[in-house]
Amino acid sequence: MEPRVAPSILSADFARLGAQVREVVEAGATVIHVDVMDGHFVPPLSMGPQVVSALRELDLGVELDVHLMVERPERHVADFARAGASNITVHAEATPHVHYAVQQIREAGCTAGVAVCPSTPLGVFTELDADLALCMTVNPGWGGQAFIPSSPEKIARLRQVVGKGVEVEVDGGIDPDTAGPCAKAGASLFVAGSAIFGAEDPAQAFRQIAAATRCGQPY
Ligand code: DX5
Ligand code: ZN
């Protein structure tokens, strides 16, 4: 599994969303990260399945990686799958039925991700077989936060638990400086929002982060 960078549209200019996504796709992005927030699991509200449909209609041939920061995410899986999600990730803390949610996501035709907040232990990953394991490297809810310095050590433990062949995703505070340590620890998918869309040249910022991820070994 070669390392890939997933630009998060949370930090994009929503008035020019199509143009911003095209820009990073032309720079080499093959996966776009969509952050869904419900005002309960995390305080802010962000976006819903309509945005996923709109991105799918751009027909850019990219994977749409939907990160559900919502309570009882299993209730929303069908809507996001219908809208065109490729991967749907649910938080382990957001439902007592993580295994059921993973099953539902697969039945809906998507790959299934499970996310953990910084304070959540990794035990859930020994109890189910997710296609993707998301290790939050900030507390979820906002773009532009500082990377939690202890994250690489947790990522290394996560890679041990899930083994090769499972996507280990990192999300929060990823930039050219933090991407390298995460790659060395075993991450394979790197979400970056403000470091890309907050930059003057998002395409160049994307390429810089992508270069920084190549210091790890492919998983
Ligand atoms: C935060 C979201 C992230 C966010 C990352 O809760 O899950 O995907 O967009 O933003 P940056 O890269 O700015 O930390
Ligand atoms: Zn996210």
Question: Would you mind describing this structure in some detail?
Answer:
There is one protein chain. With 219 residues, this protein is of the alpha/beta class. It has one domain: TIM Barrel, CATH 3.20.20. Helix content is 36%, strand content 20%. The protein has an eight-stranded parallel β-sheet with strand order 1-8-7-6-5-4-3-2. β6, α6 and β7 form a beta-alpha-beta unit. α6 runs parallel beside α7. It is globular, with a radius of gyration of 16 Å. The mean pLDDT is 98. The protein binds D-xylitol-5-phosphate and zinc ion. D-xylitol-5-phosphate binds next to β2, β8 and α8. Zinc ion binds next to β2.
Question: What topology does this entry show?
Answer:
Blueprint: E1 4-7, H1 17-26, E2 31-37, H2 49-57, E3 63-69, H3 77-83, E4 87-91, H4 98-107, E5 111-116, H5 124-127, E6 132-136, H6 151-162, E7 167-171, H7 176-185, E8 189-192, H8 194-197, H9 202-213
Helix pairs in contact: 2-3, 6-7, 7-9
